[in-house]
Write a structure and sequence with these properties.
By secondary structure, the chain is mainly α. It contains 18 helices and two strands. The longest helix has 30 residues.
């Protein structure tokens, strides 16, 4: 990443998401250790299940590392914010209500004592976000930490690909890219790559980073995304960028040029590389397998058909491992319904609606565009990925969006068209008073 994607602009300015070399320093009052806390939260959400690594890592050891990272993040955030000053946040209030719902559903122990452990994890996760909310008026700092931390994670994936190509592209996953040094699945890698590519593109359009520094992030991330063959992440990235850039079209000439070139390139690629793109998209699957979303639809139907009591319908069965009948649910809404019930679904829907509504009410700006991208991506990915109801990267993405929307940004003025000057006849220029 280097020093290109750093917070900049006028100190404390709400419209700053990055900087150029030689720009003003980061606003005073935001501790540098906030970046460490954010990186520890990212480490906690990497998970402990995935492909086999080059050096076998016991799952218990990975869980100790990830949970230890969360405890360390909470303690460090508490040290940084000893006076417990927090920013009022509808997003975090709804997330706290979701935590309460999770505790109520998990207290019955239908999912075992592991549900209470997951509630404790979610409580520490939400508590850390509350402590960090004090500095959310400087959303630029969190964008920088988000991009850099996930780019470091992708760096470990690339290193694993170089060290052991066979382990990084195993036959078990159909030759899709996995984490060979840390157990990461193809959807995880695809998600991280898509999010940082989208954010970096927006930073370039907003002239908050130089093109050379952005290329160092975008090019390798796109290569890793292509190697994962992750359709959800790819569609989420393109659709999220389309919505985010669309919000800048009236105020940014760079956004208009980029959008025009993107449409032209997409049309050419669809004609010239149609068969290649279709093969990449299908991943060698049969039509039946593709139509059932790689078997997901069968799990969804079984989950919806399972008998449930009234309390289970309202509150769910408690936090679990996002599976049903031993198979992954791979849908945030159904996972929330299974674990936190209809009340959980209502709270998660409210999270997205509140963030989306606030983003629509904000005047056009780069922070607003970044928030729209993150909200859109999470909403799209929720169809085939679980995580909106528990501590996960998706909640971190939404927390970043909330930070970007914490302080209303000043609208970028729309340039007024130049009015042609009329030529005044000489006779009219003479004074009538002689």
């Amino acid at each position: 990443m280097g020093g290109n994607l750093t917070a900049g602009g006028p100190p404390g300015g709400p419209d700053t998401v990055g900087t150029r070399p030689g720009a003003a320093p980061r606003p005073a009052g935001t501790p540098k250790a906030v970046g460490i806390v954010w990186a520890l939260l990212v480490l906690n959400t990497l998970g402990s299940a995935g492909a086999k690594t080059v050096i076998p890592l016991p799952r218990s050891l990975i869980q100790v590392v990830t949970m230890g990272a969360l405890v360390a993040a909470f303690v460090l955030a508490l040290v940084l914010n000893r006076r417990l000053r927090v920013r009022p946040s509808a997003f975090l209030s709804l997330l706290t209500l979701l935590l309460v719902t999770s505790v109520i559903s998990s207290a019955r122990l239908e999912s075992g004592f592991g549900a209470l452990f997951r509630c404790t994890r979610l409580a520490l996760f939400v508590g850390t976000l509350w402590l960090l909310s004090r500095w959310w008026d400087d959303g630029a700092t969190f964008v920088r930490h988000h991009v850099r931390t996930y780019f470091a994670v992708l760096g470990s994936v690339a290193a694993g690909l170089v060290v052991s190509p066979g382990a990084a592209l195993p036959d078990l996953y159909g030759g899709r890219l996995v984490g060979a040094l840390w157990p990461l699945t193809p959807p995880q890698i695809g998600q991280y790559a898509a999010v940082i590519v989208g954010l970096t593109v927006l930073l370039v359009l907003g002239r908050r980073t130089d093109r050379a520094g952005a290329a160092v992030v975008i090019v390798p991330s796109l290569v890793l995304l292509a190697l994962t063959h992750t359709r959800t992440a790819t569609l989420g990235m393109f659709l999220g960028l389309a919505l985010a850039i669309g919000s800048l079209l009236l105020t940014s000439a760079a956004a208009r040029r980029f959008f025009t070139w993107a449409v032209l390139c997409a049309a050419v690629a669809a004609v010239a590389l149609g068969s290649v793109l279709e093969a990449w998209f299908l991943r060698g699957q049969s039509q039946e397998n593709f139509s059932s979303l790689t078997g997901r639809a069968k799990v969804w139907d079984a989950l919806l058909a399972a008998p449930r009591s009234t309390s289970e319908q309202l509150f769910g069965v408690g936090l679990g491992d996002k599976s049903f009948g031993g198979l992954p649910i791979d849908n945030s809404w159904l996972a929330v319904y299974n674990e936190q019930g209809l009340i959980g679904i209502a709270l998660v829907a409210a999270l997205l609606l509140v963030l989306g509504g606030v983003a629509l009410l904000r005047p056009p700006s780069l922070p607003r565009a970044c928030a729209i991208f993150l909200i859109s991506y999470c909403a799209i990915a929720s169809y085939t990925e679980a995580g909106l109801g528990d501590a996960s990267p998706y909640l971190l993405h939404l927390a970043l969006a909330a930070a970007l929307l914490a302080t209303p940004a000043a609208a970028t003025p729309v340039p007024a068209p130049e009015v042609p000057r009329r030529r005044v006849p000489r006779r009219a220029q003479r004074s009538e008073v002689t």
